[in-house]
Amino acid sequence: MKKKGLKKGFDTSVVKTNQVSPISYLIHQIKEEGTYSLTVIDGRAKIGFAQIHVSEECNMPSVNIDLDQLSKQDKTQTIRLDKKYAYVLLYNAQEVCDYRVLIRKGRKLEFDSRKPQRGDLFSINLLQPGRYEVSEGTRKSKLQLTVDKPGLATSSRSEDYKRLIIDSKALQKSETVSMLPNQGITIELDDKMKTVSLKQVSDADADTTSTRDELKQLFRSKVTKRKTVLKQRKFSWSPK
Description:
By secondary structure, the protein is α+β, with helices and mostly antiparallel strands. 16% of the residues lie in helices and 38% in strands. The chain has four helices and 16 strands. The chain has helices at 67-71, 152-156, 168-173, 209-230; strands at residues 14-16, 24-29, 34-42, 45-55, 62-66, 77-82, 87-91, 100-105, 108-112, 121-124, 130-136, 143-147, 164-166, 176-179, 185-188, 196-203. The strands form three sheets. The protein has a six-stranded mixed β-sheet. Strands 1-16-11-12-14 form a five-stranded mixed β-sheet. It is globular.
């Protein structure tokens, strides 16, 4: 297996739905029972592999796959998911990356991270206060987001707020939405929402490095608890 180091130099103020990072996910639900192969591709090199078994006999509703860790494993990872849910969450714990992920059932293509299907989700937590624009490649309208700059105590409580859901209709409105750091955004992908970009257009005035680092730790701690929560209730992409 050919392995490459993490790509550096990405502009983290611009996030696209074909990129994953420590604070952004691509989410796909496998709806049919069977055995699937997952391949991570960097350029032309295949750098990571997993086998996913989906059946009624499995009790795990979802799996969080760190593409960085998967690319460092010598053996193919085996994953077993409950047919009722079977959500696959893709992220990279170290860096923003544009690895391509393919999921196949035999020769049939189930998922391509470069070509999301209706029902696929892209989830991101904005930790840096400031103004952002959400746009789709073929649309002129843009959704304006303002991430306010509260104190850390308020930011930590942002988990009590509902995640912002963005679909193709939301982009048509060209409105401005205010939110808190770590509140979270979920973009519902479909045939008209394949190339969504989120760009930071201005920073908050004051230095927020300390707050941002603490929020990152909070977000990552939620990720580790997600599997336990999902066993108790129907899947939600909120990182609670």
